[in-house]
Amino acid sequence: MLISSFLNHIIIRNILGLTALLTVHFIADQENFFRREGSNQWMPYLFLVMLYGGMIVHHRILFDQFYLKQRRKIYWIGLLLALAVSSVNMHYILQKGFSVENTLPKLISFWVYVLTGLGVYVLFRYVRLDQQPSVFIQTSDSTSKSADSFTCTVDSETITISHASIIYMESMENYVKIYTPSKTYVTRLTLKQAEERLPKPYFIRISRSHIIHRAYLKDHTPDNIKVGGENFSIGKVYKRHVAELLSSKL
């Protein structure tokens, strides 16, 4: 169990993935590796490290933080900018390090491999989310609402999160992020489904994208609310409802 938990840690998985990538490349490249001199020996491996890092940036930041939050213009700008920077870098390495005059075929191959890899990741994410089982273990509505914890499925594992530890929830298209002081969980669920199973008035829906726990409320105005160090805008259609709940006593 401890070993499984260790191997499933995101940092460990990325280290193992990068190590495997570099090892496979070295096996195929070792004959040429010992023929190259100086920095040219390590240049392809440095490029692979940068490429792997770019993939992580795409998966964890561009796709999760922008694309899935409907900020897709920023996503495409970021993706195209990353491809442009990587292409210039690859062009320089090929010309200066390997004396390749016509780098266009290599760049096209690079774009094809990168876009294919990103496409596989995006498809995997959506398919994986769609195939996950129902998020909640349901008994009755009264039991769901009065329970002291929130049961959901994260990475195919059923977990229980105490209501007291939930700072806020954030909608990300077809799944929800649950923020706690120690960890962030991602589960396939609509924010409306989550709202129906959270006890009121402790949890308040403040917009189409957020539900907050009023125990973590720091400050608020008619238009904005501060929870757990984060500032959120109150949706127009929610303002009256939020104001009524915040004026009521727990």
Any overview of this molecule?
It holds the Pfam family LytTR. Keywords: DNA-binding, Membrane, Transmembrane, Transmembrane helix. GO terms for molecular function: DNA binding; phosphorelay response regulator activity. Mean pLDDT is 79; it is low at 129-146. Helix content is 52%, strand content 18%. It has a five-stranded antiparallel β-sheet, with no helix packed on it. A hairpin with a 4-residue loop joins strand 6 and strand 7. The chain folds into two domains: 2-131, no CATH class; 141-247, Beta Barrel (OB fold (Dihydrolipoamide Acetyltransferase, E2P)), CATH 2.40.50.1020. The protein has eight helices and ten strands. The chain has 250 residues and is of the alpha+beta class. It is elongated, with a radius of gyration of 24 Å.
Secondary-structure blueprint of this entry?
Blueprint: H1 2-7, H2 10-33, H3 43-67, H4 72-98, H5 104-131, H6 141-146, E1 149-154, E2 157-162, E3 168-172, E4 175-179, E5 184-187, H7 191-196, E6 203-205, E7 210-213, E8 217-220, E9 224-227, E10 230-233, H8 239-247
Antiparallel strand pairs: 1-2, 3-4, 3-7, 4-5, 6-7, 8-9, 9-10
Helix pairs in contact: 2-3, 3-4, 4-5
Keywords:
OB fold (Dihydrolipoamide Acetyltransferase, E2P); alpha+beta; 5-stranded antiparallel beta sheet; 3-stranded antiparallel beta sheet; 250 residues; elongated
Q: What separation lies between the terminal Cα atoms?
A: 41 Å
- Large-scale geometry: elongated
Number of domains: 2
Largest sheet: 5 strands, antiparallel
Protein structure class: alpha+beta
Helix content: 40-55%
Mean of residue pLDDT values: 79
Spatial strand order of the main sheet: 5-4-3-7-6
Number of strands: 10
Spatial extent as radius of gyration: 24 Å
Query: H/E order of the elements?
Result: HHHHHHEEEEEHEEEEEH
Q: Which stretches are low in confidence, meaning pLDDT under 50 for 5 or more residues running?
A: 129-146
Number of helices: 8
Strand coverage percent: 15-25%
InterPro entries: LytR-like, LytTR_DNA-bd_dom
Transmembrane segments: 7-27, 42-62, 74-94, 106-124
Domain HTH LytTR-type: 150-218
Pfam family, one: LytTR
